[in-house]
Amino acid sequence: MFDHHEEDAGSEELSPLMHAIVPRLALCRIREYEPEDLEACVEVHRSNEPDLLPAGGLESFTAFLEGGTSYMLVIEHAGDVIGFGGLELVGDSDTALLRHGMIHREYQRRGFGTTLLAARIALLETDERPLEIWMGAPPPAVPFYGRFGFKLERVHPGATGGGVGHSAMFSLMIEPQDILDVRDALEEREIRIELNEESDFEEETDEE
Prior knowledge:
single chain
């Protein structure tokens, strides 16, 4: 499903991003989100409350899924939805947003979060210029995203105490070769992103 550039892949030393991704890729099924996945995604969200997510955020999260404003992927393991994450491009800019990426609490630290990140990176365009990725996540996610080269830009205080409800903003500059390398790494692990036939991510986001 991807345009591959075999002459470039593997010809240069892997970037720090790829050094962090390649060893942790986990075999799973990755496909587009469907409305029928709502209940399973809500359960994934609930599994991360209240330690990682504030208990009051489920309503806004459900509205986000029902709104369909992001290109959403889900991860399946043994037939169950265990994670999901969204991707948006900001108009005609060189900026992409990662939205609501999370893995069910029982399946964390098994490589599925890394695989979800890689899948969303693989969907980015490979123009000749680098892209800037932005995302928000709870402060406990700082070590996880830091290993891929994301920079902690700021932390927004939450309404609750103890750090729960705080939101950390991260950014990462990614080169076109990194996107190609991520695609190749997923293919080598036989991890494919199943897209609906009517979907065209690049065309949809270019028109927004």
